[in-house]
Amino acid sequence: MPLSSTPTASRVPIAIPSLPNRKGLKCRTIQIKNNVNFCGGRIAAYKRSRNLEFVTNSVAGDSGASVGFDVPFPSDYSKLLEQTKEATELALKDGKQLMEIEFPTAGLGSVPGDGEGGIEMTGSMQLIREFCDLFINPEKVTRTRIFFPEANEVEFARKSVFGGASFKLDYLTKPSLFEDFGFVSKVKMADRVKPEDEMFLVGYPYFNVNEMLVVEELYREAVVNTARKLIIFNGELDRIRSGYYPPFFYPKLAALSKTLFPEMETVYYIHNFKGRNGGTLFRCYPGPWKYVNHLFQMANTMFSNSFCSLPKQKSECNYAEPCGYVVCGGWSGEFIILQGQPIICF
């Protein structure tokens, strides 16, 4: 998809004061039975468990480093990038190899689609450059390979956002004769990777369904059983997790929820829900998953930075036997945190 030459992501800061937490925001926890259809408002079977209260200094996941770790929602993109850097560094110290970073680019309160597609991608490209400048040590720059979805985006990046940088820029797919019909040629990852590469970062691989399949190939062929790391940056993986792509028509893509995603750690995540029951789902590794309902937030403006910490995840959970917990209403339906992965119901 052509990138936009329009100025990048909106940087209007959202003022969110850091004020004491307060009891009162209620979510409901559920025990999910096997073979439940999660999305489309059809949670077939659950039982009420208990109400949640505001929690600080809590922790989710299996990281011992997460004790006492709690991060406030960012006030602007500069703070967001600082949090993302720290979260990624902690994940690396904990031995994570496959990581996800996901947040909106058209404003911290936006959702995918609020901005024109090309502008959102250009915004992601700009934020990737800023993240890399913060996160990658100068001596590691030439050992970092950044993948963009298509070859023409690499050319655009070299002439604009990444001009003068020493990062290795690469691509996942290249145009074919049938590009106008949505067909592209996959790139063999074994031919792209070099022995000196240590870190891979893949930017927004969501426009074409083949892009995430190539990412899985990159992970299997160049990361597994090595010391390399792979970060997926703004891949809109919620589309795959939620069943947005019907498994009947996209079996390989749908299979990623059972093959690739269970091996992935979501190190930084913001998802906004719009509408009357809108809210924000937030996580900064190794802290807990947190949710705030915007209606409650407006009614209690003194406590506008109060997030409800979601229950800890059981380390033995798996996709074959889901034990996922939390359902909170939003414009699109519900979300479920399952094995540390958010499943957004569109």
TrEMBL record:
InterPro entries per the record?
Answer: DUF1995 (IPR018962), LPA3 (IPR044687)
- Look up the coiled coil feature and give its residue ranges: none
Short name of one Pfam family: DUF1995
Q: Which stretches make up the DUF1995 domain?
A: 74-290
Q: What is this protein called?
A: DUF1995 domain-containing protein
Q: Which organism is it from?
A: Nyssa sinensis
Organism ancestry: Eukaryota, Viridiplantae, Streptophyta, Embryophyta, Tracheophyta
